[in-house]
Design goal:
Blueprint lengths: L3 E2 L2 E2 L3 E2 L2 E2 L11 E2 L6 E7 L6 E7 L2 E4 L4
Antiparallel strand pairs: 1-2, 3-4, 4-5, 6-7, 7-8
């Protein structure tokens, strides 16, 4: 499920792993637990070599708009 919110575009979490929004192949980009929270975290995809800035709120990941 992806939608826009006040945090940004929602990213896909399959099981407990963040899926890369660019290549969608690396399912072990970052582990997300239900109680995880953080802002402006850099997530690096080893497959397509891209970095994404993410915000995590109550176990849900959002692409950060930045400042």
């Amino acid at each position: 499920m992806q939608f826009e919110s006040k945090h940004g575009k929602m990213l896909t979490v399959r099981g407990k792993w963040l899926e890369c929004p660019t290549c969608r192949r690396n399912r072990q980009m970052m582990q997300i637990r239900p109680d995880t929270e953080g802002h402006n975290i850099v997530a690096f995809c080893r497959v397509c070599k891209t970095e994404h800035i993410v915000d995590i709120v109550k176990g849900e990941c959002f692409e950060s708009y930045g400042q």
